[in-house]
Amino acid sequence: MARTELSVQAITLASELEDLTWTAASATNDHYFLNTGGEVLLVKNGDGSSHDIVIDSIADRYGRVNDVTISTGAGENSAMGFFAPEAFNQAGSDVGRVHIDIGVDEDANMYLAVIRPANWR
């Protein structure tokens, strides 16, 4: 499965959420974004039901994995960040990427965006 990239959008103090580019969530392909540790994932749920997405973590130095689930209520928005690279950046051919998994039937009217402050590193 080839994941769909979410482009990281730089924001300033004057940025408006209405100006962001939102990507429809896909349970078929799932998603990823390139992570420096300064990104925030935004989730917009335009559906009449609550939906979950999962952020894949990687094993820490003790081999523990702690995936994170974001639940977004019907008609609500959620935000999550920051993603510590040592806890979330994948390795191998996906190095530097944070993986976002969308479950079957969890993508109805769900939209994603990734933001980072314009002056971040």
- Into how many domains do the coordinates divide? 1
Structural class: mainly beta
Name the CATH architecture.
Sandwich
CATH topology: the name is Hypothetical Protein Tm1070, Chain: A
Kindly estimate the percentage of residues that lie in beta strands according to DSSP.
Answer: 35-45%
CATH level-1 class: Mainly Beta
Cα distance spanning the termini: 32 Å
What is the alpha-carbon Rg in Å?
14 Å
Average pLDDT metric:
93
Model regions low in confidence, pLDDT < 50 over at least 5 residues: none
- Beta strands, count: 10
- Specify the number of helices: 1
Sheet having the most strands = 5 strands, mixed
Shape: globular
SSE arrangement, N to C = EEEEEEEEHEE
Largest sheet, spatial ordering of strands: 1-4-9-6-7
